[in-house]
Design brief:
glycoprotein, Peptidase_S28, 480 residues, single chain, protease, alpha/beta, Rossmann fold, 17 helices, 11% strand, eight-stranded mixed beta sheet
C-alpha cells in the first residue's frame, strides 16, 4: 500500500515520535522525578473513567517560578531532550520548579481503552491546568508555559484561555496559522528554500529535483527496478509503480526531516546527526553530481542522504521504505478532527494544469481536502472540520483581532524553519513579542545553548530571559 503523501507530510509535525532516543538514560537523571497524575478522561461531562498523565518534575526554590512545558504529540522525554534552554539554563538562573507534562494519548499517558473521542486540545489543556493547580505552591507563584510546534500552540492557548494560571508563554515555531495555507504549499516551499540556501552549492535543490525526476522516468522501466533496489538497499522488492512512488515519498520525508533538524551542532535523531545536516546532505549530493555524472550517480547521492539520516552506525543492511512512522495514529486523529494542516507539493515547474508549481523541488503531490476527508472517515469514522481551530481559538485571518488584548506571549520562528509559513510573524500589540531568528531552524531557541549558535539566536534567548524575568517580577508585584 502506498501511504498518501499528505499523510506522510502531515506526520512530520510529529516527527519526534519516531526517534530512537535514549529515554532510559534520561530517567537516570536524579534531578527529575517521574510522577503520574490521575485526570478525568472527560473533563467536560465528567464521564466515568480516568487517565494517568505522566510528568517529569524537578523541584526548585519554593519561592521561585514554575516553568511548565505543555507536552505535544510525542512522548514527553523527547520534548525534554529539545528543551535544554529551560532545563540547563533558565531553571538554574531563576531557581524554577520545572514540570514537563505529557499530552494525553502520547507516550505513557494512554488510557486503558483508546477511545479517541477524548483526544482533543481542550481536554489536554484541562489536564495541564488541573495538574498545575496541584503542583503550583501558591497563587503568588509565577507560572510560565513553554512549547514548540504543536506544544508551542498549546503553550500559547494556555496563556490565552487560562491567563489566571499562566503568566507568560514562549511559543516556539508554533504553526498557529497552518490551516490558512489551504493548498499546503508552505512547508515544501520553505524546505526547498533551505536547501537552495546551502553554503555548499546553490545547485543543491536542483540535484534533489533531478533525483526525483529520474525516479519518475524509471517508473515506466520495470526492468530497472532491481537496480533501484540495489542502489537504495530497500528491504522490499520494488515490483510496480506504487513502490517507486513510495520510494520517492520516503526520500521526501527524509529530506524534509533533515531540514527540521538543521542545527549548528550535533543533534540526536536516529543517532548523532552532524552540525548543519542540510549542508552535509548537499556535500554528499555534490560528490555524486560531479562530472562525469549519470542517472545512477545522482540516485546514489540521494541514497547517501537517506543513509546520513537513518544509518549513522552503518549497521543497517536495508531500509524499509514503508515503515516511515510509528506512533502516528493519535496525531492522525487530531488532524482529522481539530488540527487539519494542509501539506502538499507542487514541483519546480508551473504549468496550466499545475498553477502552484515552481515553488518547491519535490514530486508533484497536490493537497486534496476531499481525499483527506475520505481517509479520516475510513480510518476513524470522523469528518474533519477545517474551521475548528479558527472558531475555537481564533487562529484565523483575523488573528489580529483575536490577540489584540493578548499579553506576555513570545512567538518565535527561524529563517530556515519549515513551519515559519504558519507562524505568527507580526507583533500584534506591545504586549506580544515576535522573534525572527536568522540562520535558525525549528524551535532552536528552546534547545541547549551552544557556542556555535548564531548571534541572532543568542539575542533571542537573551531577550526571552529578560521578558520571563519581567513577567515573574510583575506577578510578584501584583500579589504583594
Amino acid at each position: 500500500m502506498v501511504l498518501p503523501l499528505f499523510l506522510i507530510a502531515g506526520l512530520l509535525l510529529g516527527v519526534n515520535s519516531i526517534r530512537v532516543g535514549n529515554a532510559e538514560t534520561f530517567l537516570l537523571n536524579p534531578n527529575y522525578q517521574v510522577e503520574y497524575f490521575t485526570e478525568p478522561i472527560d473533563h467536560m461531562n465528567r464521564d466515568s473513567g480516568f487517565i494517568n498523565i505522566k510528568a517529569l518534575i524537578m523541584n526548585g526554590s519554593p519561592s521561585g517560578p514554575v516553568f511548565v512545558y505543555t507536552g505535544g504529540n510525542h512522548p514527553i522525554e523527547y520534548e525534554f531532550q529539545g528543551a535544554g534552554f529551560i532545563t540547563e539554563y533558565l531553571q538554574l538562573e531563576l531557581n524554577a520548579t520545572v514540570i514537563f507534562i505529557e499530552h494525553r494519548y502520547y507516550g505513557d499517558s494512554v488510557p486503558s481503552e483508546e477511545d479517541y473521542q477524548y483526544l482533543t486540545t481542550s481536554q489536554a489543556l484541562y489536564d495541564f491546568a488541573d495538574i498545575l493547580d496541584q503542583v503550583v505552591p501558591s497563587n503568588t507563584t509565577a507560572v510560565i508555559a513553554f512549547g514548540s510546534v504543536y506544544s508551542g500552540m498549546l503553550a500559547a492557548f494556555m496563556r490565552i484561555k487560562y491567563p489566571h494560571i499562566i503568566d507568560g508563554a514562549i511559543a516556539s515555531s508554533a504553526p498557529l496559522l497552518a490551516q490558512l495555507d489551504t493548498q499546503g504549499t508552505g512547508f515544501s516551499r520553505v524546505v526547498s528554500y533551505d536547501y537552495s540556501m546551502s553554503n555548499v552549492n546553490q545547485l543543491c535543490h536542483i540535484w534533489i529535483t533531478d533525483g526525483f525526476n529520474i525516479l519518475s522516468n524509471l517508473i515506466s522501466r520495470p526492468t530497472l527496478y532491481t537496480a533501484l533496489e540495489d542502489t537504495f538497499h530497500t528491504c522490499q522488492s520494488l515490483n510496480d509503480m506504487g513502490d517507486i512512488v513510495q520510494l520517492q515519498d520516503w526520500l521526501t520525508s527524509i529530506i524534509k526531516s533533515i531540514a527540521l533538524y538543521n542545527f549548528p551542532y550535533v543533534s540526536n535523531v536516529y543517532g548523532p546527526l552532524p552540525p548543519w545536516p542540510v549542508n552535509v546532505a548537499c556535500q554528499l549530493l555534490q560528490k555524486y553530481n560531479m562530472a562525469p555524472v549519470n542517472q545512477w550517480s545522482t540516485l546514489q547521492g540521494m541514497y547517501e542522504v537517506a543513509n546520513l539520516y537513518l544509518n549513522y552506525t552503518g549497521r543497517a543492511t536495508c531500509f524499509d521504505i514503508y515503515n516511515v512512522f510509528e506512533e502516528g495514529q493519535p496525531w492522525m486523529y487530531q488532524q482529522c478532527t481539530e488540527l487539519m494542516m494542509p501539506m502538499g507539493q507542487y514541483g519546480p515547474i508551473k504549468t496550466a494544469s499545475n498553477p502552484l508549481g515552481g515553488n518547491d523541488m519535490f514530486p508533484v503531490r497536490p493537497w486534496s481536502t476531499a481525499q483527506f476527508i475520505q481517509m479520516c472517515q475510513s480510518v476513524f469514522g470522523v469528518t474533519p472540520k477545517p474551521s475548528w481551530i479558527s472558531v475555537n481559538y481564533g487562529m484565523s485571518a483575523n488573528v489580529n483581532e483575536t490577540l489584540q488584548y493578548a499579553s506576555n506571549i513570545v512567538f518565535s520562528y527561524g529563517q530556515l524553519d519549515p513551519f515559519k509559513y504558519s507562524c505568527i510573524q507580526d507583533e500584534i500589540n506591545p504586549q506580544t513579542t515576535v522573534f525572527y531568528i536568522r540562520n535558525a531552524t525549528t524551535a532552536v531557541d528552546l534547545r541547549t545553548p551552544s557556542p556555535n549558535d548564531p548571534q541572532t539566536l543568542m539575542y533571542a534567548r537573551n531577550h526571552e530571559e529578560i521578558l520571563i524575568s519581567q513577567w515573574i517580577a510583575a506577578k510578584a508585584s501584583s500579589t504583594a
